[in-house]
Amino acid sequence: MKGRAVLFMGARKPFEITEYEVPDPEPDAIVLKITQAGICGSDLHSWRGDGDPPPPPPGGRPTGHEGSGVVYKLGKDVTTDALGKPIKEGDRIVYSSIRPCMHCRQCLNGRHNWCPQLFGRFTPGEFPYFTGTYADYYYIRPNQPVFKVPDELPDSVLGFVNCAMGTVTEGLMQANCKEGDYVVVQGAGGLGLNAVAAAKDMGAHRVIVLDRLENRLELAREFGADDTINIEQEWTTPEMRAQRVKELTDGRGADIVMELVGRSELFQEGIEYLGQGGTFVEIGNIVRGNPVPIDPSSILFGAKRIIGSIMYRPSLLPVMLETLVKKQGQLPYEKIVSHSFPLDQINEAFEQAEWADRHPTITRSMLIP
Question: What dihedral do alpha carbons 253, 222, 332, 355 form, nearest 10°?
Answer without folding.
Answer: -70
